[in-house]
Write a structure and sequence with these properties.
By secondary structure, this protein is of the alpha+beta class. Helices cover 26% and strands 31% of the residues. The protein folds into 4 domains: 51 residues; 267 residues, TIM Barrel, CATH 3.20.20; 88 residues, Golgi alpha-mannosidase II (Immunoglobulin-like, Sandwich); 144 residues, Galactose-binding domain-like (Jelly Rolls), CATH 2.60.120.260.
Length: 569
């Protein structure tokens, strides 16, 4: 498919080159006609590319409610319930069987199934799931033993993918006809395997199994590293969720600053949903809405056979689901904090367009009043707001909107503005660290991390950057409507002289040597850069030594003469 897109783009390029050539010979009116045609071709091509990328997985998983206590009958009943409750019509498609269906492995390597639980075998279950118009998911481990074997299930021993990658993938996806696999790491830890190497071997086995539609989830309980997006559709970023607000809040805390790693149809997985179990309705609403706007897979974890109507209504809220399934495949990022609440935003429908999704998340134990500042959200002029919980248009507002968010609550809006403004502030914690990972000690590995720091504007900064070329901080979506010269102001912290090298669109701009006088002091340095119209990439790096910590940077149209001279403030 990738090659097809490359060919499409090649022909688009030829078409546009022809238009450019021909328009030199045409009237102004005809130039406009040709320009419109060119734009239409480009839009169609980009839309085709976006549609081909997978949106976050939607479905159900057995683990949260049932753990190892599963059966063929239970799984079939959950599939029936997904249809009868309307979840299927709302977009849920997968019925995923987690751990607990094993009976060891035969001497010849063949997987043995617990026939007391699954008397007709695993193929019969997937066939049934497919017969009601759904897709089927299965579970394994990257190592030898499953996680269930640690919970005194001896039948999960020696059933993992380790040294059986090719054979097991053929079993799961050809013989049994499953469409998704979650691959855990308890056995990988037991064998002390190399995460990247083993998961890559599994990805290759999936790729070569004879099907090209398998979805692959890596469950490593922390962000594995930037290598993961090249081999998996989604990946766990936290420890296992459990049925409590404290768990949901902890998972959100860890994922608020991972938006840069959700891209091109590959997603940060915040784990299965606990909606409809024991949390309050307000907490359930926050749980579901934040999973939606942050583009996490949506896997229901409750018993779908006996859901309350309020649970069904929430899980089938099509306006929230639309944020999750939006074809731009973006995770919302934290635009700013106010009164202890997080204001998150992301483009929907059109990149750098006039419509954006907004969430105001209150993790505190009391209600908070918040004023939305639309200028900070890059929305100008009159703004039309729609409440996605209440399915209600709130009319036009101007530059500000005041609201009260209950304890543990979230408000979610779709906002359409008269004008789209250019982003001024880019918090470092929304940037992409090319060597980012959470599995190993970053100081030992010399990899950058995001650090909580109350001295910084958003409460976080990017630190431990530099020392090697790939340990950089980059922003791939810096948009300028017209291009031109901009003043780039970097806020930094360091106790000694450190260098920041700056690239714009792959071209070296300048090197700044700075010193703020301590890691508790934020100072700024300003340089002039030139941006092209449209999307730009700005990169900060130093391959020779560690960089200063970065708080944020700002971009404003420059009034200077264009000299790349640093100004410290």
């Amino acid at each position: 498919m990738r090659r097809l897109y490359e060919d499409d783009n090649y022909f688009v390029t030829l078409f546009l080159q022809t238009i450019i050539y021909q328009t030199n010979r045409l009237s102004i009116a005809m130039k406009k006609v040709f320009a419109a045609a060119a734009f239409g071709v480009l839009a169609a091509t980009f839309l085709t590319n976006a549609q081909a990328q997978r949106t976050p997985l939607m479905g159900w998983s057995s683990w949260n409610t049932y753990g190892l206590n599963i059966s063929e009958q239970l799984i079939k009943e959950q599939a029936d319930a997904m249809v009868s409750t309307g979840l299927k019509d709302a977009g849920y498609k997968f019925i995923n069987i987690d751990d607990g269906f094993w009976n060891g492995r035969a001497e010849d390597g063949t997987l043995i199934i617990d026939t007391a639980k699954f008397p007709n075998g695993m193929r019969a279950v997937s066939d049934y799931i497919h017969s009601v118009g759904l897709k089927a998911g299965i579970y394994s481990d990257a190592g030898d033993n499953t996680c269930g074997s640690q919970n005194r299930d001896p039948y999960g021993l020696n059933v993992g993918l380790f040294r059986h990658e090719k054979e097991d993938c053929h079993t799961y996806f050809i013989d049994w006809n499953y469409d998704f696999i979650k691959v855990d790491y308890c056995g990988g830890m037991h064998k002390n395997l190399d995460d990247k190497a083993q998961y890559t071997k599994i990805a290759d086995a999936i790729k070569n199994c004879g099907r090209d539609d398998i979805q692959f989830n890596i469950c490593r309980w922390a962000y594995p590293g930037t290598w993961v997006s090249g081999i998996a559709d989604s990946w766990r970023t936290t420890a296992d969720i459990y049925d409590a607000w404290e768990s949901v809040r902890s998972i959100l805390d860890e994922n608020l600053y991972l938006s840069a790693y959700c891209r091109d149809g590959h997603y940060n997985d915040m784990d299965m949903l606990e909606v409809g179990r024991s949390m309050t309705p307000t907490e359930d609403r926050t749980h579901f809405a934040m999973w939606c706007i942050m583009s996490s897979p949506l896997l229901v974890g409750c018993d779908m056979r006996n859901m309350k109507q309020e649970t069904i209504d929430l899980l089938t809220n099509t306006e929230l689901i639309a944020l999750n399934q939006d074809p731009l495949h973006l995770q919302a990022y934290v635009a700013y904090k106010v009164n202890g609440c997080y204001v998150l935003v992301k483009d929907i429908e059109t990149r750098f367009g006039n419509t954006r999704a907004i969430a105001v998340y209150n993790p505190n134990d009391n209600s908070r009043t918040v004023t939305l500042d639309f200028e900070k959200l890059e929305l100008g002029g009159d703004v039309t707001l729609r409440d996605l919980f209440e399915h209600k248009d709130l009319g036009n507002v101007t530059s500000k909107y005041r609201l009260t968010v209950p304890a543990h609550g979230t408000a979610v809006y779709k906002a359409t503005a008269q004008d789209r403004l250019e982003r001024v502030r880019y918090e470092a914690e929304s940037g992409y660290i090319s060597d980012y990972q959470e599995l190993a000690n970053n100081e030992v590995m010399r990899t950058g991390i995001y650090i909580k720091d109350d001295a910084c504007s958003g409460g976080y900064k990017a630190g431990w950057l530099g020392y090697k070329n790939e340990n950089d901080l980059s922003f791939d979506d810096v948009y300028s409507r017209d291009g031109g010269k901009y003043d780039l102001t970097i806020a930094y912290l360091t106790a000694d002289d450190r260098a920041i090298k700056i690239d714009v669109n792959g071209e070296f701009v300048t090197k700044c040597v700075v010193n703020s006088g301590g890691y508790d002091k934020v100072k700024t340095v300003t340089v002039t850069v030139t941006l092209k119209p449209g999307v730009n990439k700005i990169r900060f790096y130093d391959a020779d030594y560690f960089m200063p910590d970065i708080d944020y940077f700002e971009l404003v149209p420059s009034k200077s003469d264009g000299k790349k001279v640093a100004h410290n403030n």
